[in-house]
Amino acid sequence: MTRPTEDPEELDRADPEGEIARAAEAYRNWGRWGADDRLGTLNLIDPAKRLEAAALVREGVTVSLAQSFDMNGPQKGWRRRTNPVHTMLDTGTDAERGSQGFPHGIGGADDVVAMPLQCSTQWDGLGHIFDHGRAWNGRAAGDVVTSDGDLVTGIEHASSAIVSRGVLLDVARWLDPERGELPDGYAISTGELEACMAAQGASSHVGQGDIVLVRTGRLARARREGWGDYAGGDSPGLSFTTAGWLHRTGIAAIATDTWGFEVRPNEFDLAFQPLHQVAIPNIGLTIGEMWDLEELARRCQELARYDFLLSAPPLPITGAVGSPINPVAVL
Q1: Alpha helix stretches (DSSP H) within the chain
Q2: Dist CA 85 CA 16 (whole Å)
Q3: Domain 8-78+116-330 = CATH 3.20.20.150
């Protein structure tokens, strides 16, 4: 089988099946961490990597990388994805009126949230995407995810795994210093990722076990202009041809400030999220979406360094194929 291209101009845009199959076979990690593996590339975060990451804490500055979880979010109902619905169960009014039934004047408030697990800042788990009916590590998709949830690679298995060295690649600022935003449909290539690293300096070197954050500026534009088609619409993002880079670098996970991580429209005449199809079930890569990288980008630019300790554990929701998160960068 022909080796996959890493040049977007060489993609056969009329043959998504062939291009996806070539990339899947070339970069497949099935069996790399054993037949029973549940973590994929998160296995590449080891104690030495976490000690390296901890040593990056110098200023004691913390930055949340999460969007808000509220009714004003970007979701429009695609495939039943809605914004969070927050409801109060007990309120201060109840306490004032003494209707809660507690003794000696104590009162309280309680609330509940109902939401899809991938409605705002989140991780895609390894059970989220399949390739021709196969899940991560070559398992039959129907044996992995049933009506009872992800029985094998549920997101709970990663609950203590995702703490590592984070690296911000502010590709939008590097390509467009004036605006710091990429246009919709812009496909970020491997060459551009590597050139951005070189321009940002030594602190941007990406290696095994790192978590890479790619800023496109799409979220900044959505906040300025309104959500529009941020959820599911056209967007800058990674080119399908970066699959080789994602595999070769040995990164543990990657996240962007966009809804879908990869460029939209996708780079084929008829396709839907082809880079997901290679990255998640074949490489075993955990993917983050809708991260807020604006404040982090400002801090990194001020400090002239782009690596930091990153803590981004999912909620241990048993059997879930994704999880909302509040990632925190510590500089």
Answers
A1: 16-27, 47-54, 92-96, 141-144, 171-175, 190-200, 218-225, 243-248, 274-278, 294-303
A2: 38
A3: no
Residue ranges, CATH 3.50.30.50, the chain: 8-78+116-330
124: amino acid identity, one letter: D
Phi-psi group of 171: left, alpha or beta (phi > 0 → left; psi -120 to 50 → alpha; rest → beta): alpha
> Mind listing the pLDDT tens digit for each residue in 127-170?
999 999 999 999 999 999 999 999 999 999 999 999 999 999 99
Identify the pLDDT of residue 2: 77
Q: What is the pLDDT of residues 253-277, one digit of tens each?
A: 999 999 999 999 999 999 999 999 9
328-330/307-311 β-pairing: antiparallel
Render pLDDT for 285-299 as a digit per residue (tens, 0 to 9): 999 999 999 999 999
Core vs surface per residue 175-204: b (16+ CB within 10 A) or e: beeeebbbebebbbbbebbeebbeebeebb
Token pair of 292, please? 């807020």
Q: Which residues contact 96 (CB under 8 A, 6 or more apart)?
A: 107
Q: Which residues contact 310 (CB under 8 A, 6 or more apart)?
A: 53, 162, 163, 164, 165, 166, 211, 213, 327, 328, 329, 330
Structure tokens given for 278: 């290679």
- Position 1 scores a pLDDT of 64
* Residue 233 CB neighbour total at 10 angstroms: 18
**Cα–Cα distance list, 220 to 118, 172, 287, 297 (Å):** 20, 11, 20, 11
Stated pTM of the model:
0.97
What integer pLDDT is reported at residue 3 of this predicted model?
84
Q: What is the pLDDT of residue 19?
A: 97
For strands 163-169 and 211-214, give the pairing: parallel
Give dist(CA 279, CA 86) in Å, integer: 33
198 and 165 in contact (C-beta within 8 Å)? no
